[in-house]
């Protein structure tokens, strides 16, 4: 992190961060966000820009939305197109941006696709993260925050899932995210490395192609078609709104944590998929009943998180209740 000019003694990190955020230090806090054109990335970058951070975005645009980048550039983001697997490109962006912190979101995220292309997922999610960590170490980045996933846990052996739960992913996607997490938490030599294990995120702008069940339900309900439930619908999930996820990254960014930490980011409240479908039908004011299809292989039966660690260490808690978030999604166009 760059020192404020004219000071002979280092400032405590919390004070230094606060001064930078208020414009009273050398410059606003500078953040590089990888995957800036993605679903979580563009929401996060917008919030960072609105709060006065200096934001650099990196994305290879293989799946990200160029229109999102243009909107963020209008707000002041500086964007560089690069592939996290290309060591020279990553180092060039880091040398140019000289960030105080890196938030690493760039990843492939489709569990079904990961079974079809396991090598690609390992290359992007694990090896790409290793390359980024190595470059960040060489250039002296102070903090690295990584978007991990609940998929690192695999089938839960106890509920709610806390951060000490065994890590036993059952998909190539989950394995690739776990390896990426290990590179961050064990390999990063800066002041702090934080892995946020995100559960089932949803919200505006999520791509139906790679999205979870909520977006798929929304798409069908907008066409007055019944939601399709795979299996009996008794399986549970823990849904968290993208705005709350973005806030968690910002809290991690501005925290005074040192060392390596893994934190669950979720609502902490399970809901059955059958109940989710019924709630969304009711919010849409339709007279429909969900349609059931055969269970999908590899689906976890029950999953929800213990989020007490994130509350304690980050002072973070989710603000958007599920019904409120769903209502806004269903009313939007």
Verbal overview:
The chain is of the alpha/beta class. It has a domain of 231 residues: NAD(P)-binding Rossmann-like Domain (Rossmann fold), CATH 3.40.50.720. Helices cover 41% and strands 17% of the residues. It contains twelve helices and 13 strands. Strands 3-2-1-4-5-6-11 form a seven-stranded parallel beta sheet, with helices on both faces. A two-stranded parallel sheet has the order 7-10. Strands 8-13 form a two-stranded parallel sheet. Helix 4 runs parallel beside helix 6, helix 6 packs parallel to helix 7 and helix 8 packs parallel to helix 10. The longest helix is centred in the middle third of the chain and has 21 residues. The radius of gyration is 20 Å and the shape is globular. The N terminus is likely disordered.
Quick structural gist:
Helix content is about 40%, strand content about 15%.
Question: Any chance you could write out the topology, listing elements then pairs?
Answer:
Elements: H1 13-21, E1 30-34, H2 39-50, E2 54-59, H3 66-74, E3 78-81, H4 87-97, E4 101-104, H5 111-116, H6 118-138, E5 143-149, H7 172-187, E6 192-198, E7 200-202, H8 213-222, E8 228-230, E9 236-237, E10 239-241, H9 242-254, E11 259-265, E12 271-272, H10 273-284, E13 291-293, H11 308-314, H12 322-331
Parallel strand pairs: 1-2, 1-4, 2-3, 4-5, 5-6, 6-11, 7-10, 8-13
Antiparallel strand pairs: 9-12
């Amino acid at each position: 992190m760059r020192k404020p000019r004219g000071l002979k003694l280092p400032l405590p990190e919390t004070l230094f961060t606060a001064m930078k955020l208020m414009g009273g230090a050398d410059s606003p806090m500078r953040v590089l966000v990888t995957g800036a054109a993605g679903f979580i990335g563009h929401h996060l970058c917008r919030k960072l820009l609105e709060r006065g951070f200096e934001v650099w975005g990196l994305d290879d645009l293989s799946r990200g939305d160029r229109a999102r980048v243009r909107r963020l550039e209008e707000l002041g983001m500086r964007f560089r197109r690069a592939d996290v697997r290309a060591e020279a490109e990553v180092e060039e962006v880091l040398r140019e941006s000289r960030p105080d912190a890196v938030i690493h979101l760039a990843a492939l995220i489709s569990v079904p696709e990961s079974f079809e292309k396991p090598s690609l997922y390992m290359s992007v999610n694990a090896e790409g993260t290793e390359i980024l960590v190595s470059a960040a170490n060489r250039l002296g980045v102070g903090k690295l925050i990584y978007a991990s996933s609940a998929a690192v846990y695999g089938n839960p052996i106890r509920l709610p899932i806390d951060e000490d739960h065994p890590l036993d992913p059952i998909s190539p996607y989950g394995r690739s995210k776990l390896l990426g997490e290990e590179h961050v938490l064990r390999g990063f030599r800066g002041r702090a490395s934080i892995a946020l294990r995100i559960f089932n995120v949803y919200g505006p702008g999520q791509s139906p192609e790679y999205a979870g069940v909520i977006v798929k339900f929304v798409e069908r309900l907008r066409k007055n078609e019944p939601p399709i439930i795979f299996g009996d619908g008794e399986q549970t999930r823990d849904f968290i709104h993208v705005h709350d996820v973005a806030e968690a990254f910002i809290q991690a960014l501005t925290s005074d944590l040192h060392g390596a930490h893994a934190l669950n980011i979720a609502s902490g409240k399970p809901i059955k998929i059958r109940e989710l479908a019924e709630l969304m039908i009711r919010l849409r004011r339709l007279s429909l009943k969900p349609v059931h299809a055969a269970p999908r292989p590899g689906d976890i039966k029950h999953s929800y998180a213990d989020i007490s660690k994130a509350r304690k260490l980050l002072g973070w808690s989710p603000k958007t209740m599920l019904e409120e978030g769903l209502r806004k999604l269903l009313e939007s166009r």
